[in-house]
Design brief:
The protein is mainly alpha-helical. Helix content is 81%, strand content 0%. The chain contains 6 helices and no strands.
């Protein structure tokens, strides 16, 4: 029985890794499409409008199936703020992908989770082990290597 549980756990981790790699691949294709759109006459506002519209249409059936008590209207102020932060971030990403090489932009994107660590400790008062900070600094070092600081 323990072998079966261990196998199921290993398979779910393998599936999770596969989905993570697949998601990153999709994001990379999306970055290439944004880069191509930026070279045409599409403005950042058109891109953001289309992105948010398509995302909303994709999520609407799932939201509609939720019980009315679970639809999240009670926290509308937080959702409003979060939506506007995402809106501003999407415009910044679109503009940055137009002017930066894709490799540089993706290297900078990988800094976001590393910045989340100190923010979680400061804002949420989460407990972070010192070794985790060391690994985070190692990640920043990796980003600097990718960015080639010699240039």
């Amino acid at each position: 029985m323990q072998q079966l549980v261990g196998r199921m756990r290993a398979d779910s981790q393998l599936l999770a890794i596969f989905l993570l790699v697949l998601g990153n691949l999709m994001i990379s294709f999306g970055d290439v499409l944004v880069k191509l759109m930026g070279q045409s006459q599409i403005s950042p506002y058109q891109y953001v409008f289309l992105r948010f519209t398509m995302t909303s249409l994709l999520l609407l059936p799932f939201w509609w199936r939720l019980a009315p008590a679970r639809r999240g209207w009670g926290q509308w102020k937080i959702h409003f703020l979060r939506g506007h932060l995402l809106l501003m971030g999407s415009v910044c990403v679109f503009v940055s992908l137009i002017y930066l090489p894709l490799a540089t932009a993706n290297a900078v994107f990988y800094a976001a989770p590393l910045l989340t660590l100190p923010l979680a400790a400061l804002i949420s008062r989460e407990q972070v082990r010192p070794a985790t900070y060391g690994v985070s600094l190692l990640g920043f070092g990796g980003i600097l290597v990718v960015l080639n600081p010699a240039e």
